[in-house]
Amino acid sequence: MTAPHYPAGTVRALLPTAHVSDATRAALQQRLDAPADYVPQFLAPETFALLEAVAACLFPQPDRPEQPIPLAPSVDQRLLEGRSDGWRYDALPPDREAYRLGLGGIQEIAQALFGQDFERLDAGQQGQVVGALAGGNPPGTTWQTLNADRFFEEMLAELTTIYYAHPLAQEEIGYVGMADLPAWTKIGLNEKEAREVPMSE
C-alpha cells in the first residue's frame, strides 16, 4: 500500500488560482519548466555527470523515468553565482572547492571498492560507495584532508532542499502550503480548507 498523496496535477491546478501569490507562482512554475537538457555552467561536464549520478542514487525517481526532478543543475547554478547559506563548517573548504574535491573523492571511493567510475556501477554498488562516504572513513587520498561525513551531510542537505522545493515533490508528500492566500484558518486536526483536495491512496 502506498502512502496517501495528492492526485497528480494538484499543484498545477492550484498554481493559476488566486490562492498562490505572483512571486510564489513564478518560482514554482520556473521549477516545473526547467529544461531537461541543462548544460553545466560551473562544474566540468564529467563532474556534473557524476553529481547527477550521485543525486539519482540518493533520490531515485522510478516513477519519473522520462523527466526526473532535476537536482544537479541547481547546485551548479549556485556554485556559478557564488551563493551560499551564509555559513560553513570550519572543517570544510568553501563550497566550490568542497564540491570539486568531494565529487572527485567519490570517484576515488568507487575506484577503490569496485575498480570503476561511480556512474558505471549498479544501484547496489553505488549505495555502498555512498554508504562508505556517509560513514566518515572512506578510502581515497581526498578524504585524508577533506572531512567525509561533513561533506556528505552538506551535499545531502542541499539536494534534499532542492528536491522538496520542487512542486512535484511537494505534491507527492501532500503539501500545498504554497496556496496560502488567504491565510490558512482551518488548522485543527482533520480540518481542511476547501482548496485542499482529498488525498488518494
What does this structure look like?
It is a single chain. The longest helix is centred in the middle third of the chain and has 20 residues, at 95-114. α5 (95-114) packs across α6 (123-135) and α6 packs across α7 (148-164). The mean pLDDT is 92. The chain has helices at residues 10-14, 22-32, 45-58, 72-81, 95-114, 123-135, 148-164, 167-172. It has 201 residues and is mainly α. It contains eight helices and no strands. It comes from Hymenobacter nivis. InterPro entries: Gluconate_2DH_su3 (IPR027056). This is Gluconate 2-dehydrogenase subunit 3 family protein.
- Using the alpha-carbon principal axes, give the shape: elongated
Q: Give the C-alpha Rg.
A: 19 Å
Give the rounded overall mean pLDDT. Answer: 92
Biggest sheet, open or closed, and with what strands and sense? none
> Which percent bin holds the helix content?
40-55%
Separation, N- and C-terminal Cα atoms: 8 Å
Strand content: under 5%
Count of DSSP-assigned helices: 8
DSSP, total strands: 0
Structural class: mainly alpha
Tell me the series of helices and strands, N- to C-terminal.
Answer: HHHHHHHH
pLDDT < 50 runs, ≥5 residues: none
Pfam families: Gluconate_2-dh3
Organism: Hymenobacter nivis
Protein name: Gluconate 2-dehydrogenase subunit 3 family protein
In short:
With 201 residues, the chain is an all-alpha fold.
